[in-house]
Amino acid sequence: MKVIVHTDQAGQWQQALSERLPQATIWKSQEADREQRAQADFLAAWKPDETLLRECTGLKGIVNLGAGVDALLGNPALPRDVPIVKLRDAGMAELIADYVRYGLFHFQRDFDRYARQQQQCEWREHEVIDKPDWPVGVLGLGAIGAKVARAIAADGFPVLGWSRSHKDIDGIECLSGDEGLDRLLSRVKTLVLLLPDTSSTRHIINAETLGKMREGASLINPGRGTLIDEDALLAALGDKNQRQEGRLRGALLDAFPTEPLPESSPLWRHPRVIVTPHMAGPTPLSEALDQVAASLDALDKGEDIETVDPDAGY
To answer: Where is the D-isomer specific 2-hydroxyacid dehydrogenase NAD-binding domain (predicted)?
Structure first.
């Protein structure tokens, strides 16, 4: 088995995969010559460039070193007949659940309002809304979304989950389809976005869907930046120079269509927006390495393994 690794931590991945797959030859992409690239059986990569994909002419499989495959699927040099395996959770879900918890408490316990009051030296307590009276919606019930939904429910929040096709998850009210989405939006006080980036999910949060949400609802996006129409979001948040909240109370945003987020973006300076630099779910290296090694071994042996559906986008 010959594998090329392409990632910012290629040296670390090369050493660790060599220990887990001693029978394999592991090359770093930046050191592999054209002959080695052509000989490679598998590519383990995060956002490979077109040149690398075109020169890896003998691939039997690609392992995407992350949960999001939009950049890979959008690469014009991607060979269409090569199976793709992606990381599924690999320890990211727990980290993302913690991020979502922070956002939930930020709004449920009024920390956003207290922060603004501090700027005005205003001493005013707000009545606490109990967790059972704070329904949370989770859009996307894949491996990560389902775990995040269960974690929130275990904390005592009522959780409504939505996915393209219906799912059953204990303790979660699962909805699907356009009607299910409308029902969820009208009921939740906080909406969490964990959908993949596909043609059907881009700008799923837009003026129309934001208009269906409850007055004073909040938004948390540790998923994909393309899920949100940013102009519509800003309109729903209201004028940044006014202390009065807009229809949407606030947003915690970790992903954006262009990253890094341009300095000119009004999101940076909006008083009801928290911007984080795509850090909600960093991949724990040890768990990811175990999953990648197992995937490469299964692909090499021709075993059944769950692969990405390029048409669905995940």
So the answer is: 104-280
Q: Give tens-digit pLDDT for 107-119.
A: 999 999 999 999 9
pLDDT tens by residue, 198-238:
999 999 999 999 999 999 999 999 999 999 999 999 999 99
Q: What is the pTM of this model?
A: 0.90
Measured CA to CA in angstroms, residue 86 lies from 19, 162, 309 at distances of 21, 22, 11
The CATH topology of domain 2-89+283-301 is: Rossmann fold (3.40.50)
Which run of H or of E encompasses 4? strand 2-6
Say yes or no: do domains 2-89+283-301 and 92-275 share a fold: yes
3-state secondary structure of 294: helix
Q: Which of 6, 202, 224, 272 is catalytic?
A: 224
Q: Where are the domains of the chain?
A: 2-89+283-301, 92-275
CATH class of 92-275: alpha beta
The one catalytic residue among 20, 88, 247, 278: 278
